[in-house]
Design goal:
This protein is of the alpha+beta class and 386 residues long. 71% of the residues lie in helices and 9% in strands. Helix 1 (2-26) runs antiparallel to helix 2 and helix 4 (86-98) runs antiparallel to helix 5 (101-125).
C-alpha cells in the first residue's frame, strides 16, 4: 500500500508540472497574465503539499485547503482553459477516495457542479458556433464524468471492504490467540486438578495399604518363631497388599501420563492418521472397544510397540499397506501387525524391537516374527490378560 501511495504522489507531481507548463504556454502572449496565472498555480501546488503533509489531520484545515484549491482552479479554468481542467478530476479523486461523511459529499457535489457549470459557461460564450459535434462532445464529456465518478466510488467501496476484511482478520487472529491462551490455561488447570486427585488417591489407597502391610510385617516378626502357620498367612496377606499397592501406583502414574480427554483408541488412531496424511501408506486399524479396560501399563506397551513397528515398516519394508489388529481375549491380549512390504532374508533387530521384546517378556508375554521374502513382514505380540 505504501508503494502504491508513493507512485501516486510521483504521478500527481508529474501531472502538476505538465499543467503548469501548459498554463504558462497558453499565457505566453501576455506577460502579466502569465505571471498572475503562474503565481495562482504555484499557490495550488504549495496548498496541495501542505494539505497532504499537515492539513489532513484536522477536518477544518483540510476542507479549507480543498476550498482554496477549488476556487483557484475554477478561476484559472475560466481565464486559461486547456489542461488546467484536469485539476477538477484530481480534486474529485482526492475527495472521493479519502473523504468521509456528509461534508465530503457536499464538496464532491460542489466540484461536479463547478465542472458542469464551467462547461455550460463555455458553451454559452460560444453559442453562435454550436453545432452537432459540440453537442455530441458535451454529451460524451458528461458521460465520461459520470463514469469517472462511478468508477471512483466503486473503487472506494472495494477499498473500504478490504479494510473491513483486514480488520476482521486481525480481530479473528487476536480472538484465536486469546482462545488458545485460555485453552492452555484450562488444560493446565485440568492437569493440575487431575494430579491433585491422583495424589489424593495415592495418599488414601497406597497409604492405607502400606500401613496395613507394615502392621502385618510387625506381627509376623513377633510370632514367626511360635506360630509358623499364622506367620505364613500374614506373609500371604502382605504379598496381596504389595501387589495391590503396585497396581494402584501403576494406574496413578499412567493417569498422569495420559491426556485427560483422549482414549487409548484415539491415541492409536492419531498414529495412523499421522502416517496416512503423507499419502504413501494405507493403514487398516482393527481395535476392540474392550481394549480400553486393560491395564494402563499394557496400553503403554502396545502404543509404543505399534508406533515402532509402523516406523520400521515404512522406513525399511517399503510397504504401501499395513494391517493392525488389537484383540483382548479371556486369557491373553494379542497384537498383530503385518505389511505388504518386500520382507527380508536376514532379520536384524534394532534397539527399538529389542526394547519391545524386553518389555513384553517382563510381563511374561511372547513375541513372534514372520519376515519371509516377498511376503512382507508380520509381528505378533501376546500379553497375558490379568
Amino acid at each position: 500500500m505504501n508503494k502504491i501511495y508513493k507512485y501516486n504522489r510521483y504521478l500527481y507531481k508529474a501531472v502538476q508540472i505538465l499543467i503548469g507548463m501548459d498554463v504558462i504556454y497558453r499565457c505566453r502572449d501576455n506577460n502579466i497574465k502569465a505571471l498572475i496565472c503562474f503565481v495562482l498555480f504555484l499557490v495550488i501546488v504549495i496548498n496541495d503539499y501542505l494539505r497532504t503533509k499537515y492539513f489532513y489531520k484536522t477536518i477544518k484545515e483540510y476542507y479549507s485547503s480543498i476550498s482554496l484549491a477549488m476556487i483557484i482552479n475554477l478561476i484559472l479554468s475560466l481565464h486559461v482553459e486547456g489542461y488546467i481542467d484536469i485539476y477538477f478530476y484530481l480534486i474529485l479523486y482526492e475527495l472521493i477516495l479519502y473523504g468521509e461523511g456528509k461534508i465530503s459529499r457536499l464538496f464532491i457535489s460542489l466540484e461536479v457542479i463547478s465542472l458542469l457549470g464551467l462547461i455550460s459557461f463555455r458553451i454559452i460564450s460560444d453559442y453562435d458556433n454550436i453545432d452537432y459535434d459540440n453537442i455530441l462532445g458535451i454529451i460524451m464529456v458528461s458521460t465520461g464524468i459520470c463514469f469517472y465518478l462511478v468508477s471512483l466510488f466503486g473503487y472506494k467501496a472495494l477499498r473500504k471492504e478490504k479494510k473491513e476484511v483486514d480488520r476482521l482478520n486481525k480481530e479473528l487472529a487476536l480472538s484465536y490467540e486469546k482462545l488458545k491462551e485460555q485453552s492452555e490455561k484450562i488444560e493446565e488447570l485440568t492437569i493440575s486438578k487431575e494430579r491433585s486427585r491422583v495424589a489424593e488417591e495415592i495418599h488414601d489407597n497406597l497409604g492405607h495399604n502400606l500401613i496395613a502391610l507394615n502392621m502385618n510385617l510387625d506381627v509376623t516378626e513377633k510370632i514367626i518363631d511360635r506360630d509358623i502357620d499364622k506367620a505364613k498367612e500374614l506373609i500371604n496377606k502382605s504379598h496381596i497388599l504389595t501387589k495391590r499397592s503396585m497396581d494402584d501406583l501403576r494406574k496413578a502414574v499412567y493417569a498422569l501420563k495420559e491426556k485427560v480427554t483422549k482414549t487409548f483408541i484415539d491415541s492409536l488412531k492419531e498414529i495412523v492418521a499421522n502416517i496416512e496424511d503423507t499419502g504413501k501408506v494405507k493403514i487398516i486399524l482393527d481395535v476392540e472397544e474392550s481394549i480400553e479396560e486393560i491395564l494402563p501399563e499394557y496400553k503403554d506397551i502396545i502404543y509404543t510397540s505399534i508406533k515402532e513397528i509402523i516406523t520400521n515398516s515404512v522406513k525399511h519394508g517399503k510397504c504401501s499397506e499395513i494391517n493392525i489388529s488389537v484383540k483382548a481375549y479371556i486369557e491373553e491380549i494379542k497384537i498383530i501387525v503385518s505389511d505388504n512390504g518386500v520382507g527380508c532374508n536376514e532379520f536384524i533387530k534394532g534397539n527399538g524391537l529389542l526394547g519391545i521384546e524386553k518389555r513384553i517378556l517382563d510381563y511374561r508375554g511372547k513375541i513372534n516374527y514372520d519376515n519371509s521374502i516377498s511376503k512382507g513382514f508380520k509381528i505378533e505380540l501376546v500379553l497375558p490378560n490379568i
